[in-house]
Amino acid sequence: MKVLIIYASNYGSSHIYAHRLKALSHFDLVSYDEIKTIDPYEAIIYIGSLYAGGVKGLAKTLKCHDLKDKKLYLLTVGISDPKLSENHDNIIQNIKTQVAQEIFAKMRIYHLRGALNYSKLSFKHRIMMYLVYRKALRTAKEERSKEDEAIVETYGKTVSFVDFDELNKIWEKIDEDLNGCNVAS
Ligand SMILES: Cc1cc2nc3c(=O)[nH]c(=O)nc-3n(C[C@H](O)[C@H](O)[C@H](O)COP(=O)(O)O)c2cc1C
Question: What is the pTM (predicted TM-score) of this model?
Answer without folding.
Answer: 0.95
